[in-house]
Amino acid sequence: MLRPPKRANSRFTMNITHILFWFLSVLALFSALMVITSRNPIYSVLWLIVTFFSISGHYILLNAQFLAIVNIIVYAGAIMVLFLFVIMLMNLSKTAEPKKNRWLKLAGGLAGGCLLLVLVAALRNTEIKGQLAQVNEGDIGLIKNLGKELFSTYVVPFEISSILFLSAMVGAVVIGKKE
Amino acid sequence: MLLGIFWVIVEKFLLVGLIISLSMVVAMYATYAERKVAAFLQDRIGPNRAGIFGLLQPLADGGKLFFKEEIIPLTSSKFLFILGPCLSMITALLTSAVIPWSTPLHLFGQDVPLQVADINIGILYIFGVVSLGVYGIMIGGWASNNKFSLLAAVRGASQMVSYELPMGLALLGLLLFSGDLRMSVIVQNQVEHGWHIIYQPLGFLIFFVCALAECNRTPFDMAEAENELNFGYHQEYSSMKLGFYLFAEYINMFISGIVMSCLFFGGYDIPFVHEATWGLPQNVMAIVGFCVLMGKAFFFVFVFMWIRWTIPRFRYDQLMNLGWKKLVPLALINMVVTAAVILWLKK
């Protein structure tokens, strides 16, 4: 995944990057697994927050600082708070969890396995070697460059997605107003 | 090369240690100041037994908290019960990492910047940490397994999430002026072009109200509301875990004072004079700048206390109305007008 060393001091920094990369990857996978294996939904949400943090760490490794911090502000800081909010108010616990049908479990496992198969097959044919991650080097993720790109090259998709957000907001207000 | 990196790490560690101990000491004496201010406003004397003028009172309080019995109730989760105050403390201390405390010091033949990390996204980092501050309250309140605590946690969380929005919007006008999110650039911009408070008075007002709400200070202390929710989210806490919660509040107050001084009141800049022309040595300048920043921050901490002992608490619906129906539209108007004026001036 990493570029071959180029600069004089790259051996040292690459080592740190390597260590961080492996640490963050293991953390991300472990916490993601804990999200789905935790019995208590509160713990699931807390592990999900850890997952978001490790993903933000990956963004920082790729020098995409803006994305990293927005990920934390929006997901870890706001959306997860609402999740926690709902779970605490409804007082969900393991006793309240309904027993799942065995056939349902089997169907879920099969569907998940199929998705995994498709993903692995798709990954097998991509050219990973041609698209190396620009660790610590690319500067497109810095806020100034990102803003310029968004408002020049990608202005149409950007505006369309903002309209989508606006309509979602209006929809949420309309639903919230209903008695 | 290795040695260079080693020294940078040592330097940063020292700086972090210094800043954390500074925040702790300031928070300690903020508790003393709070009692003295309260006493002054209520025509009392205030603490005056421990030491001269009661100056050792914070130590006595800390000692008392340390020696109190540690009670962990039969909670829904012991781990989360302990995690709550830890998270509060961590998030309170994290914010100070991007603050430019002063101009660089000159030590051992090199410039030592008095800022832990001058990152590209400085102000967003502060928002990120502030938005995490709510977890300490929520987790603590839920893990206490107490109805009052849970109610307080939920109220506090919704308050903090609601007030983050106008806080961010209020800052957009300021960012249009500075053109950068780095804290050092924002402060430097004010040293050169005058303080942001002159251009953004409304933005500052909104930011100040939201800072009060984010610190859970009266009139926004929904999360602890003594007389309706007993003690709010930290009702079940005792000993130093309670101390951590209370302490984190004072650290938050101090840091938000520092942040407001940096964003709107020129940071380490001395008003009405051009101190760069005085010809003072660099280190003296740095220390003077630091003292000036601390002075501004202490003033804001005092205003926070002043408000606490003057204004009664909002009702919950009033609080939500103020946040969503007044502050958000005001902040949006502020942003649009600022953007229009800047566009007009640049033409």
Give a short overview:
The complex is a heterodimer of chains A (179) and B (347). With 179 residues, chain A is an all-alpha fold.
Describe the structure.
- The complex is a heterodimer of chains A (179) and B (347).
- Chain A has 179 residues and is mainly alpha-helical.
- In chain A, 74% of the residues lie in helices and 0% in strands.
- Chain A has two domains: 10-137, NADH-ubiquinone/plastoquinone oxidoreductase chain 6, subunit NuoJ (Four Helix Bundle (Hemerythrin (Met), subunit A), Up-down Bundle), CATH 1.20.120.1200; 142-179.
- Chain A has helices spanning 10-37, 41-61, 65-90, 102-125, 143-152, 155-177.
- In chain A, helix 1 packs antiparallel against helix 2 and helix 2 (41-61) packs antiparallel against helix 3 (65-90).
- The radius of gyration of chain A is 21 Å and the shape is globular.
- The model of chain A is unreliable at 1-10 (pLDDT under 50).
- Chain B is an all-alpha fold.
- The interface between A and B is medium-sized, with 25 and 29 residues.
Fill in the keyword field for this structure.
heterodimer; A: 179 residues; mainly alpha; Four Helix Bundle (Hemerythrin (Met), subunit A); 2 domains; 6 helices; 74% helix; disordered N terminus; B: 347 residues; two-stranded antiparallel sheet; 2 strands
How is the largest sheet of chain B built, in terms of strand order? 1-2
Compute the number of structural domains of chain A.
2
- The ordered string of helix (H) and strand (E) elements of chain A is HHHHHH
Please give the count of helices of chain B.
13
List the domain count of chain B as a whole number: 1
| CATH fold call of the largest domain in chain A | Four Helix Bundle (Hemerythrin (Met), subunit A)
User: Mean of the pLDDT scores of chain A?
Assistant: 81
The CATH superfamily of the largest domain in chain A is known as NADH-ubiquinone/plastoquinone oxidoreductase chain 6, subunit NuoJ
Q: What is the N-to-C order of secondary-structure elements of chain B (H for helix, E for strand)?
A: HHHEEHHHHHHHHHH
SS summary, helix count of chain A: 6
- Could you tell me the strand content of chain A as a percent range? under 5%
Helix-strand category of chain A: mainly alpha
Main structural class of chain B: mainly alpha
Show unreliable segments of chain A: 1-10
Which overall shape of chain A is indicated by the principal axes computed on the Cα atoms? globular
What gross morphology of chain B would you assign?
globular
Taking Cα atoms only, what radius of gyration of chain A do you get, to the nearest Å? 21 Å
* First and last CA, distance of chain A: 53 Å
Helicity level of chain A, as a percent range? over 70%
Largest sheet of chain A: none
Assembly type: heterodimer
